[in-house]
Design goal:
- The complex is a heterodimer.
- By secondary structure, chain A is of the alpha/beta class.
- Chain A contains six helices and nine strands; from the N terminus they run E-E-E-H-E-H-E-E-H-H-E-E-H-E-H.
- Chain A folds into two domains: 169 residues, Alpha/Beta hydrolase fold, catalytic domain (Rossmann fold, 3-Layer(aba) Sandwich); 52 residues, no CATH class.
- Chain A is 38% helix and 21% strand.
- In chain A, the strands form two sheets. Chain A has a seven-stranded mixed β-sheet, with helices on both faces. Chain A has a two-stranded antiparallel sheet with strand order 7-8.
- The longest helix of chain A has 19 residues.
- Chain A is globular.
- Chain A starts with a strand and ends with a helix.
- Helix content of chain B is 56%, strand content 0%.
- Chain B is globular.
- Classes of the chains: A alpha/beta, B mainly alpha.
- Chain A: InterPro entries: AB_hydrolase_fold.
Chain lengths: 229, 86
Amino acid sequence: MTRTEYLTYDVNGQHEHCLRFGTRDAARTIIIIPPLFDEMNRTRRMLVETMRALADLGIGSLLPDLPGCNESLADISKQCISDWRLAVNDATTQLKPTHIASVRGGTLIDDVADIPILRLAPVKGASLLKTMLRSRLVAEKEAGITATIDSLMASAKSGFLELSGYNLSLEMVQSLQDAIPSEHCRFQQIMHAEIDGSPLWLRTEPQDDARMSLALAHRLDVWSATCAK
Amino acid sequence: MSINTQETVRAILTDVLGLSARQVAAMDDDTELFGALPELDSMAVAGLLTEMEDRLDIMIDDGDVDGDIFATLGSLIAFASSKVEE
């Protein structure tokens, strides 16, 4: 039976949860940096199923909660991209994975350690922000409120901006706008078309894709076996 | 209009709406989209626009977007092509 553990790591004096699959003495342990915001919600099950498949292959895996997300008690409206990079750094330092796999917006905060990184479907922060702003505009329009991207951005200056159910500070909005995946690390990248399955992060509703989970786990197995610690 | 733009728009519909490759391959320019495809709701439009920007390397002004663009596959491809040519 696949072994599941709920660990914690410390960041800024707070405990954050981290899901672990596989045994602690596994030769390879991959920390998965998930997509951000609503894309994270839509892919969590697919990623957890990937972790389960990795455990069946004898590979350990970790899925940390970012501060303000999932089970975290931290205030999401006090986070920005560099806070999340720090959290990934702390999780990596404390839980000692041998490899990093980052997905979509996770690629914006994965440059924290000198261990190999596999990036799946990297994306610019500006693209994530624009999609969330457009979704908010649709919701405003359906509520009979006239808004523009500029008026929404202006509202962030007087507190926070609610996008996709997340209260984002001005610092988060600005840091997301400027964020791009770092090139100063040991990474390989693959696009979703290279993995059997469909890009669930683009859907409007959470879904599952067992085929993709299995394909991603096998890809991570082959990749992590061929690159040194 | 380029075959590339057509194929990219079809791939985006497949990926964002979760349609099967067979379903998208069976579409032609007159195939109705908005109002005819239950997967294409107004929230999905937000994702479609950003994917079109990223994959076709275009900029879309949200002020230019109205329901007519998503009326049929042909109208969506024509809109994308006009942006690619800008």
